[in-house]
Structure prediction request, 428 residues.
Amino acid sequence: MKKIKFQSLPGMHDILPEDQKHFQRICKTVEGVANFYSFQKIETPILESADLFCKSTGLDTDIVEKQMYTFRTKGGDYVALRPELTPSVVRSYIENGMQSLPQPVKLWYEGPCFRYERPQAGRYRQFHQFGFEVLGDKSPAIDSQIIQMSYDVLKELHFKNLIIEINSIGDSECRPYFKKNLSNYLRSRRSSLCSNCQRRLKQNPLRILDCKEEKCQQIKTDAPQIMDHLCENCHDHFKQVLEFLDEAEMPYKLNPYLVRGLDYYTKTVFEIFENTPQGKEQGALIGGGRYDNLVKILGGRDTPGCGAAGGAERIANILKTKELKPLKVKEAKVFLAQLGNLAKKKSLKVLEEFRRSKIIVAESLSKDSLKAQLRTANKLGIKYVLIFGQKEALDGEIVVRDMESGSQETFELKNIVAEIKKKLKKLK
Ligand code: AMP
Prediction:
């Protein structure tokens, strides 16, 4: 019979042990920034009702129309693997009565997302997003804070050449009027648009502004710009966001074509790129914006919102090319070497006592020879090796060997954690 070889699915990938450090660094940085600004962590299920994303992200968006993994459960429910987290967080906010908490409610998250995209550099079918969401505050200060936090995450990860692209896409007062204006203009040039955009013209003309096709570039350049059609409220809001960014000296660039493609955005939208050819090709590292209608669309009380999401893989791909100092991880200074069956059996309990006292102890329980274990300890740069042999196990003792001086002392097993604690304290 032919042997079957299994491979991960296209666009899905393992995060191997050697790459874990990049992902850990990203998570730690996001968590640090979130904690600093008093954002609380939220986790939502990977599987949600497909309708949640149809209603919020939007039926006409690529994400819902082409990229969502959906299926019917055995019970007949139509569900989706989440393609993003904002709708889930808003669902949870409504479902768990967070509207009655003091506002704004500030939340952050991280976790896998799924989109059936054509796999290519920076585009995967399973990828990890982290994000920040603020619900219940319409102030432009919040938009700026979200942008600042997104920028801070990347700065802390040693990204140097960053650019924030920003735009305002208005609200339900001014956008319909602009949409009509834009549609009229685009319809007059329909035959010059790419086939995708010809279709978009009917459903969502704003998205044509986002099109990367060569054919549509010139048409975009001459198109009416939303900035000239914002209502007073949106105009004033956007002006204030920019003033905050100026004050914080953040490098932004107005991009009148940035619309971000999702249905729920209102007013501010932004994306942050690494300003290099590779960075541009890979796409935005973090993107977000304001979504003042989303809570209402999903059945909650009228509540403004603003947030951002970043892609861990895209960021990790760039981190891999940078030579960063390794993260400070606590390294073991103590190693437990055991000899003989009785000592091996009792070792688990000894290790557990050290773990409970928060002292990291390395071990190599699968090795039987003392020589091999000492060699491992040496490689790890261990200061103290605990030698636990048959005799010691019977007598309730343990030997401590100082690997630098070679000196050895015997202690009672019941006191060993306290004795090692004293020794480690002296090292500091
Ligand atoms: P979006 O929800 O499309 O605004 O995406 C937010 C961030 O998630 C982007 O800036 C990317 O960093 C990341 N992202 C989106 N789609 C993918 C994908 N298919 N593969 C990897 N990262 C992605």
